[in-house]
Amino acid sequence: MRTSVGQPVRLVDYRVPDYLIEAVELDISLDRHATRVTSTLAIRPNPAGQAGVALDLDGDELVFVSAELDGAPLASADFEASASQFLLPRPPRGPFTLKIETRLDPAANTKLMGLYRSGSAYCTQCEAEGFRRITYFLDRPDVLSTYRVRVEADRAEAPVLLANGNLENFGEADDPARHWAIWADPHKKPCYLFALVAGDLAHISNSFVTASGRKVALAIYVEPEREERAHYAMDALKRSMAWDERVYGREYDLDVFNVVAVSDFNMGAMENKGLNVFNDKYVLASPQTATDDDYAGIEGVIAHEYFHNWTGNRVTCRDWFQLCLKEGLTVFRDQEFSADMRSAPVKRISEVRVLRSAQFPEDAGPLAHNVRPEVYNEISNFYTATVYQKGAEIVRMLKRLIGPRTFRAGMDLYFQRHDGTAATVEEFIACFAEVSGRDLGRFMRWYTQAGTPKLTVRGSYNPAERTYRLEIVQSIAPTPGQASKLPMTMPLAFGLVDPQGGDMPLISPDASPGELEGGVLELKESERTIVFHDVPRRPALSFLRGFSAPVRVEDDLTEDDLVVLSRRDSDNFNRWQALQSLATRVLLRGVKAIRAGRPPERNAGLVAAFGALIEDARLGRLDPAFATLAMTLPSEADIAREIGEDVDPDAIYAARKTLRGALGRAHGDALIELHRQLADSSPFSPDAAAAGRRALRNGALALFVDGNVIDGLALAHLQLREADNMTERLGALSVIALKPSSTREHTLDAFGRRYAMEPLILDKWFALQAQIPERETLERVEGLMSHRGFSMSNPNRVRALIGGFSANHTQFNRADGAGFALLEKVVVTLDPTNPQIAARLLTAMRSWRSLEDERRRQAEAMLRRIAAQPTLSPDVRDIVTRSLG
Ligand code: B3K
Ligand code: ZN
Question: Per the CB 3.0–4.6 Å rule, which of 159, 267, 312, 555 could disulfide with 326?
């Protein structure tokens, strides 16, 4: 499946490879500008492929040096080698050995794909198509090989030499200033899982004994002096290993497991076999440098990459269209892990917030695509919220539909049947169909139809008959290339909440036997009506408990129902949802009022609900982490998404600010008391309970400030001075930064100076300033681009400052287009050096069509200016073309 530039790759064109590469021997002699790579490939024709065709290996910006076939140099007439291809037009009919030498310049590799330099170390990133930037290869995930890798480097420059698998041998090179190590990976793997790291790195070590009694040596490598910050990641790794054994029966399968943290990385982390490479943001933590969210992020990403060892590595993907097979499934597994480690309802709410804020807009805009896409121009652009988060939701629904025991049986069958192979989504689903005896054909549509389904839900109570009638209709709006959609199977968890307390029994002749036992209805068609009997009084419908399907719901609940649910629902997710829905209604009316020149209403129900919430939190009747989320109003982007069209960000901002002000004023005393009560003098612990209390304390402070600016800012300064951890320090700094005051600039400067040598903390400082909802923010961001701590070549810095600015709803979407123009400048500047990050930044334009006229015009003009650039990377070209399409 070689991609010629500009040619889309299509799922229907998949063909098995014509050649297989059984074994790979790599000899890599590292040098900053002239690394020599000798690759010896044991190749044989694939009996299932076409016989006698040319061998066509992928390359990308490679410098060819020499080639040998079965030990003899190849004559120039017998092959073709260019930067992007090595072609053997007439390969031998049987097995043969091909040896190719290439030369690389890692120091000049700014794309951070292939072999590159990060700080003083060499490292690699191969997924999806980076291996071809190291050597010529069949760079596709269905070509699985064993690897033996000799790495050689200058001893002083790179005392540490790592690659995948187990360490086989090491020694001194002919040149005594250099040394080498040989790593061998016995497990067959696709080349995207290849990794090599070399440099002057420090490490911490530990060990894990597997369920069958094998001892695995664990190590985490970091920049020297950073070792102390790696212990939490190590702890998370050991918990992940134990969890995968306990919950999925999956053991680790090598003698060593190494993790390396690097500071220049295009993504979060990478699951290379036995040698995970991480963005240092997801490894390094200490109470002084990391927030509780950082700790949770580390736990989740460490688990995610570790879990890939089975879902991704042992069973990999046949082709990149199947990406969700490893990513959606592994996200689901890491979500379950974090839910087990922390509070499950809080975790679920956080997941749904991410899904709604990142995936729903993608699914509703021009970049919408199937969870399993059918065509792509640039695969790097498909590592999306749809593939990851919606992909995880599909697995979650599957588990709910067939039950946990059958789900586990299906997973066991999947591992047993596909271990050591490259699988497809169909093969995955077939395992569950087999163990459950169900036809999952309709369920498969979740993979093949883009767009978020909408459920219209109507409930009516008949007091004379004591019946409650529930009608559900599903519909999906057209998405690019898909005009009409078919109904999809989904589990709908629900309950009928008695306003006097408790759930009512679910009795209905319309349900299939056993269906209602777990309070889950299965929707299979576009409509379903069900009548419940013996319903003593009108219930409040608690629909889509636990967010059992990734859909939008349009219901007919009254605001009184929402208040009842927010207080009484046995499902914590829906208690949170009820308050969100109530606040959303109030905010939508507020936006309308503001646009019509009227003041927004003061909603007594919502004010009272917040009062009850704060009171419950103060009396310890609520999990603090849950109370924090319940107290968080829908974001500006959430409200924009609800409005859907003709969006005016300034009106949204004003409505939200007014409401927060009213809530902060109405409950000022209670908030200040809650804040005081949550002060914690015990030693710092990153555990979920302590983190929840800090989150609530920050939340109480922020809401208090919104209603009581002067007293609030004084309290924030006090918290900033007294804090002994980054969560409270940053919580205080945020409220100070987001409000104009005479002390703001001084406070921000002092923070920036204090952490001048801490890039990951500066990222927080960049992001925070980029989010200030004021007109001057644009100039501030431009100024920060020249800050000593900022670098356009570091993805974390760019994501913090520019990504942070694109999330600033009022300022990025400024009516004069200056916000879009800033993003344009960055995208065009970054594109030649790091196209992946440039393309990713540009996806901030994904909802441009929902803006009001003037802003929409400005957004379109910006996209057209980028599209008109004479040279663009395939990455940015793809995003801009689809965004305009
Ligand atoms: N599999 C990698 C992502 C690779 C992205 C390539 N553009 C990390 C992960 O999802 O675990
Ligand atoms: Zn992943």
Answer: 312
